[in-house]
Amino acid sequence: MSDPHTVWFDLDDTLYPYARYARAGLAAAADHIEAETGQGYHDELLEIYFRDGITQGTFDELVDRHDLPGGVVDDAIEAFHSSTTPLEPYADTEAVLDALREEYRLGVITDGRGGHAKLERLGLADRFETVVVTAELDRSKADPRVFEHAFAELSAAPWSAVYVGDDPRIDFRLPNAFGMSTVRLRRGRYSDLEPAGERFEPDAEIATLDELPAVLPEMGASKRSAKTIEREQ
């Protein structure tokens, strides 16, 4: 078997640090809340999210603390994801993508909301032939149909594809089962998290994206005999 010819990337914490997206979103949400209530909660939202680690229900926590109107939550979430503040990719991302796309077809598969807008804010949208945002399919990366859709998008067999991600809880189980090769970028929010079992383990690990080009030629051959995954309903 020849080297893989398609490379799929996760987005958040793989191509850029998600913390920057969160900070920009929290600032936009705080601006909206201040306009609605006359009270500024910028620093407190940062503390809730980053210091207290309440990354789910951040705005609910603020509402409970200050007895704010319940409608604030939905509006704050929308403001969080609608921020247009430019984002910066990791320092090695652009050069690696530019080098890889001379030899490989590149795509993105992301569970993150607003994947297309994130890539525009990062200045990376033109690096990829296709972008699969699972929310737009009303699915997640836990659903095999997401990957079947991705394979069809680039007309690529699973064993000729590599998936690069950062989160061992979700990024590698299905790609492994499909026979894709998998590479973990160990940095970002989940850098200290270990896989829950063999099915969740990547084929290779790298510390920075600029290690990826040297790893890719070794990918693929060992996955050709992977068993077919049963479609989940």
TrEMBL record:
Cleaved signal peptide residues: none
One GO term (biological process): small molecule metabolic process
Cofactors that this protein relies on: Mg(2+)
Keyword Transmembrane among record annotations: no
GO molecular function per UniProt: hydrolase activity
Keywords noted in UniProt: Hydrolase, Magnesium
NCBIfam families in alphabetical order: HAD-SF-IA-v1
Similarity section: Belongs to the HAD-like hydrolase superfamily.
Official protein name in the record: HAD family hydrolase
Native source organism of the sequence: Halonotius roseus
UniProt lineage: Archaea, Methanobacteriati, Methanobacteriota, Stenosarchaea group, Halobacteria
